[in-house]
Amino acid sequence: MKKNCNLRPLLLLLLPLMLLSCHREMVVNPIESTKLLNGTWKITKALRNGTDLTNRFDFSGFKIAFQDSTYTLDSLVPFPVSENGAFHLDDPKYPFKLFLKAGTSEYKELNMEYPISGGVRNIIISFSPGCSSNTYQYTLQKVN
Questions:
Q1: What is the CATH number of domain 39-142?
Q2: Which of 3, 86, 90, 130 has a 20 to 30 A CA-CA distance from 68?
Q3: pLDDT at 52 over 80
Q4: What whole-number distance in Å separates Cα of residue 62 and Cα of residue 55?
Q5: What's the CA gap between 73 and 138, in Å, rounded?
Q6: Angstrom distance (rounded) from CA 84 to CA 75
Q7: Given phi > 0 = left and psi -120 to 50 = alpha, else beta, which region is 54?
Q8: How many CB atoms lie within 10 A of CB 134?
Q9: Could you tell me which of 39, 94, 90, 40 has the C-alpha nearest to residue 62?
Q10: pLDDT value at position 138?
Q11: 46 and 141 in contact (C-beta within 8 Å)?
């Protein structure tokens, strides 16, 4: 019983100190930057229905240049659009869709990923050129 009596004043002293030591931390949300596509991009990997086409077809001539809200194409490969036009993203900070519009046609919707691989920013676009049994996936890297 005497042990409990000795602990009681100590606990009464520690309790207010513990309560006063608590403070709220300011939580700062990280700021996500807007993803900019500006620049010229080339195909570094091409898949059709999961099969790698990169070495079967010469993609070296294909380039797509994004500037502000327009794009221009160099050389043609299987692609959802065949002429220069306008583009926009579904969300500039977390893009999952790329919309391309050539001339007066409707916007074409492409699935998009924006990963960094090996320290280099990539764009991965997926689309079906019309026949739903054929799907293409291009990995694009910025040309320096």
A1: 2.40.128
A2: 130
A3: yes
A4: 14
A5: 15
A6: 11
A7: alpha
A8: 12
A9: 40
A10: 96
A11: no
